[in-house]
């Protein structure tokens, strides 16, 4: 996974859905790693990540949560008289908040701590969003009871203290601007007493103890296999389960279907015709998208507004009491962007890439770039996808918006075509999300997950393929 600060950009190999078919949240798996200073915690964590070979693993270091020092305290630290190995040196409130949000799948801004200034770097953070696994490491990784309770697996790295001292001297001189005498002074006054008093006793809370740290490759490999088994047991085949749901005949109350006028029926006839040229397909798809978006505008708040016409007459009308941002579920959702721009010329548009894993049918999040205005109080999100089949991709996309603090009742999900299974699945999980579609297709093949033949791949027909 990679992140880009400030613009809500993420990318990775793919993250599975947050919600099972019963609508319940799927928490990520948290591994806590503790041990003495320079015992090899980070190296063990990196080895686990490499061995796991799964996407969306977040390495969270406790060093990021040191408290800022005052100018007076900085002077003390520069004299090597400040105790950085005390539990009081950490901001546990921020740590708990960060771990809690990550476990819930929400975006967090992890501070960057500068060991030379002994302060967090101003206006710079590591933005992290979405995780299958969180590897949390630090000397007090198993110290705080509230954080401890959220962990699925607790590990203690037990390395000989002489080896730890040698590693600490090498690291602090090379990376943190200390001299050797200063490192030894801190070790004798603070590091060793803190280890004996606070850190070593947390060993009893560990599920697994790894002697010798990174040198113990056998123990690390066995630990990795255990984590992989745990992840596999948690995995739910939600997409296939949802495809086999037999939905009620009556649509949920939050689903709005365009009235089947002659125009709507004619547009669908043209779009479904396999003989329709790509040029005509684009033209009529844009027209249909415009009608869907115009219907969605009826669900937004308005306020009275008087305007004076060129003939000097006052007209009592309504003004839109909201801003609109569009979010496309790539690639087919991008087919509605032209329609959105036709109706709302100043709408900003973000993108979410969700693709299906070919091995298990699960939707996976690969990329997300959301408009910076999504959190504003008067902004509504038009979430766009061409076709709603099982609803798995829609569940994930809505969850992404919620994780970025968009209220559920300010999301309007738009599509050209929807199957009852997908509509009921999304409505059960998110009843306050309005869903607007131009047509509900009763036919959904649970084995192929394609709608009625003739529509084909909407994105390919609209944007073309490399062979076109």
Structural account:
This protein has 468 residues and is of the alpha/beta class. Helix content is 35%, strand content 24%. It is built from 14 helices and 20 strands. Helix 9 runs antiparallel to helix 10 and helix 10 crosses helix 11. The radius of gyration is 27 Å and the shape is elongated.
Here the CATH topology of the largest domain equals: Rossmann fold
**CATH top level label of the largest domain:** Alpha Beta
The whole-angstrom Rg is 27 Å
Counting structural domains, the number is 2
CATH architecture classification of the largest domain: 3-Layer(aba) Sandwich
Mean pLDDT, to the nearest integer, reads: 81
Strand order of the largest sheet: 1-2-15-14-13-16-18-20-10
Helicity, as a percent range: 25-40%
Number of E strands: 20
Global structural class: alpha/beta
Q: Low-confidence parts lasting 5 or more residues at pLDDT below 50? A: 1-25, 236-243, 445-455
Share of β-strand residues: 15-25%
**Major sheet description:** 9 strands, mixed
How far apart the termini lie comes to 33 Å
What count of helical segments does DSSP give? 14
Mass-distribution shape: elongated
Task: Provide the fold topology.
Elements: E1 2-4, E2 9-15, E3 29-35, H1 41-52, E4 57-61, H2 71-78, H3 92-103, E5 108-114, E6 119-128, E7 133-137, H4 145-149, E8 153-158, H5 161-175, H6 180-199, E9 208-211, H7 217-234, H8 238-243, E10 255-257, H9 262-272, H10 278-297, E11 302-308, E12 314-320, E13 323-330, H11 337-343, E14 348-356, E15 363-369, E16 379-384, E17 387-388, H12 392-403, E18 411-415, E19 417-418, H13 420-429, E20 434-437, H14 458-463
Parallel strand pairs: 3-7, 3-8, 4-7, 8-9, 10-20, 13-14, 13-16, 16-18, 17-19, 18-20
Antiparallel strand pairs: 1-2, 2-15, 5-6, 11-12, 14-15
Helix pairs in contact: 1-7, 5-6, 9-10, 10-11
């Amino acid at each position: 996974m990679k992140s880009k600060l400030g613009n809500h950009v993420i990318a990775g190999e793919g993250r599975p859905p947050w919600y099972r078919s019963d609508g319940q949240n799927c928490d990520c798996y948290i591994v806590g790693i503790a041990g003495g200073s320079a015992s090899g915690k980070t190296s063990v964590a990196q080895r686990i990540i490499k061995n796991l070979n799964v996407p969306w693993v977040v390495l969270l270091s406790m060093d990021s949560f040191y408290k800022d020092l005052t100018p007076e305290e900085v002077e003390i630290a520069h004299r090597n008289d400040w105790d950085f190995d005390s539990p009081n040196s950490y901001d546990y409130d921020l740590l708990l908040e960060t771990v809690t949000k990550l476990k819930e799948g929400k975006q967090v801004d992890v501070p960057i701590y500068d060991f030379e200034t002994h302060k967090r770097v101003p206006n710079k953070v590591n933005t992290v969003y979405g995780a299958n696994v969180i590897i949390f490491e630090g000397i007090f990784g198993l110290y705080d009871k509230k954080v401890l309770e959220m962990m699925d697996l607790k590990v203690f790295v037990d390395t000989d203290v002489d080896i730890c001292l040698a590693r600490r001297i090498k690291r602090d001189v090379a990376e943190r601007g200390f001299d050797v005498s200063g490192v030894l002074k801190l070790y004798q006054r603070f590091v060793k007493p803190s280890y004996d008093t606070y850190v070593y006793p947390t060993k009893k809370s560990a599920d697994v103890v790894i002697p010798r740290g990174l040198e113990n490759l056998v123990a690390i490999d066995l630990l990795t296999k255990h984590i992989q088994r745990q992840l596999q047991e948690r995995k739910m085949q939600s997409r296939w389960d949802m495809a086999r749901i037999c939905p009620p005949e009556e649509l949920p109350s939050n689903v709005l279907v365009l009235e089947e006028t002659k125009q709507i029926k004619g547009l669908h006839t043209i779009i479904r015709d396999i003989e329709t040229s790509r040029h005509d397909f684009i033209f009529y798809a844009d027209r249909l998208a415009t009608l869907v978006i115009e219907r969605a505008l009826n669900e937004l708040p308005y306020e009275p507004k008087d305007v004076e016409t060129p003939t000097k007459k006052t007209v009592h009308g309504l003004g839109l009491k909201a801003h609109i941002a569009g979010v496309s579920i790539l690639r087919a959702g991008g087919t509605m962007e032209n329609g959105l721009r036709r109706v709302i010329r100043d709408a900003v548009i973000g993108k979410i890439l969700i693709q299906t894993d070919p091995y298990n049918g699960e939707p996976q999040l690969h990329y997300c770039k959301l408009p910076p205005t999504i959190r504003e109080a008067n902004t509504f999100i038009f979430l766009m996808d061409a076709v709603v089949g099982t609803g798995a991709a829609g569940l994930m996309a809505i969850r992404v918006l919620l994780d970025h603090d968009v209220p559920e009742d300010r999301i309007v999900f738009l599509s050209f075509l929807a199957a009852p299974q997908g509509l009921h699945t999304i409505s059960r999980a998110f009843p306050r999300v309005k869903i607007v579609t131009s047509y509900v297709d009763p036919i959904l093949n649970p084995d192929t997950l394609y709608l009625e033949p003739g529509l084909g791949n909407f994105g390919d027909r609209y944007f073309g393929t490399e062979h076109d």
